[in-house]
Specification:
mainly alpha
């Protein structure tokens, strides 16, 4: 091999070697760092996904909070029963909003414009909290006396009492409790004090403080 041939061979070899050293300064690779031991690699996809001719549109970032027996769970469950959670609905008897308030009840908690109330979700939430505080004050002695007892096959709980008071007013709940279930008011749609006490029992309503003069200010 002549000198020119050696030169032509070594020069490209040297360039390649320098590039390799620059890109991989540590020529010793520890393959243990790349072990798949302990990883779950046995994946499966549904036949529907595997055979789909086009990508299936999968909705991401769906979050459904689990409210459980919290106060939020209580009011949302009650709202769903009342109106399916619709702030802007009015029923056939003229009851308004998410929690189906009557106009006279609204006046007691300081709301005198039903139209303003119906258009204002924040005010509706304030109204529910204020009215629940007021009902808890009216029924405070009955809650203490009857909570934990069974009346007509229904275990009496504070949340059940407050839900029934929202339906029928605290006076009807007093009659139900003190008659041991003999007086069981039902509204025009057939929902009764007893039914509400059972359906909404066991929620944590300790956040509600009794307040005779509770108001919902716009």
């Amino acid at each position: 091999m002549n000198k020119n041939s050696v030169k032509n061979f070594l020069l490209p070899f040297a360039i390649c070697l320098l590039i390799a050293l620059a890109l991989y300064p540590d020529s010793t690779v520890n393959l243990d760092q790349y072990s798949t031991e302990g990883l779950e690699l046995n994946y499966h996809i549904s036949e529907e996904l595997a055979m789909a001719p086009e990508p299936i549109n999968i909705q991401k970032n769906i979050f459904t909070p689990h409210l459980g027996k919290s106060f939020e769970g209580f009011k949302e469950a009650l709202a769903f029963k009342e109106s399916r959670g619709n702030y802007f609905t009015v029923n056939t008897l003229g009851y308004l909003g998410k929690y189906q308030f009557g106009k006279e009840t609204l006046k007691m908690i300081g709301i005198y414009s039903p139209n303003q109330f119906l258009k204002n979700p924040e005010l509706q939430e304030k109204a529910f909290f204020a009215n629940t505080k007021r009902n808890k004050w009216v029924l405070r002695k009955d809650i203490k006396r009857f909570e934990g007892k069974s009346i007509g096959g229904v275990k009496v709980t504070e949340s059940g009492i407050l839900a029934a008071a929202h339906l029928a007013g605290p006076g009807s709940v007093k009659k139900f409790l003190r008659s041991y279930g003999s007086s069981n008011f039902s509204d025009a749609y057939g929902s009764s004090v007893k039914y509400y006490m059972k359906k909404f029992s066991g929620y944590d309503t300790s956040i509600v403080t009794p307040n005779k003069k509770a108001k919902a200010t716009p």
